Amino acid sequence: MKYFIYFLFGVVILVGSSVAKGATLTTHAKHILWSNLDSIDTKYHAELQCLAENIYFEARTESMTGKAAVGNVTKNRVLDKRWPNTYCEVVKYGPVRESWKTKGKDVKDEDRVYWPIKHRCQFSWYCDGKDDIIWANYELTPNKEIIEGNANAWTDAVKLAIMITGYGKLAIEDNTSGALYYYNHNIVYPRWADEKEFIGVEGNHTFMK
Question: Which strand (E) or helix (H) includes residue 184?
Fold first, then answer.
């Protein structure tokens, strides 16, 4: 595992440490995840969950092609030396600040906790200040009724994560021609877009490298 520590205007950018925060899965979301990972070697489970969460939160309303494109950009970053080499590190990549729970305390380096800085992450969902919950069902209703749209999107994300990584029996090729970047062209036009090579548009996202 790569381990990076950068200092930028007093902010630590740290990958490979204990970075706090992750998605919360409802009961049915957990069932979907573990039923699909049942035949996959457990050593890949954490990585697959990180990729699936990124696909879900970044592209859950997109088609399967659009979801796959987001997943493939994540994979392309894992394979590119400019980013960390694990899916979880790539998804969480960005500047962080140490939690008050460990800052200034007599704590081992590996036990220190860091929080991502709001709106500074590579993938916006990870540090937008909102609770990241995969609502595949309503938890407080008597029968925990399934939320069909979310459950289907999460199922797609998990299955695509398995195929994109190649950790299962089926694998799919990169449908982005090596894209390393994308943005939602309905919401923003990032300043870096003029410096990148345009690849194409899929759903609500423009892909570049």
Answer: strand 181-184
